[in-house]
Design goal:
3 helices; mainly alpha; single chain
Length: 61
């Protein structure tokens, strides 16, 4: 399973860039997106997993 950038990802990247925001997904977040696209997990499951991942990552800082 791997993440590949799609047209909507490029659009979101450009909109964020024009707004002055920098959004960089790490390999875990890209994996979660890939799992949703492969229909292995649902979008709500991805959101829960990403929230849990970000909470744990912030504790390590």
């Amino acid at each position: 399973m791997s993440y590949s950038e799609g047209p909507n990802d490029r659009l979101a990247h450009h909109i964020s860039r024009l707004a002055g925001d920098t959004v960089e997904l790490d390999e875990i977040e890209r994996l979660l997106i890939g799992l949703v696209r492969a229909e292995r997990i649902t979008r709500p499951e991805m959101i829960l997993l990403q929230a849990r991942y970000l909470r744990e990552a912030s504790r390590d800082v």
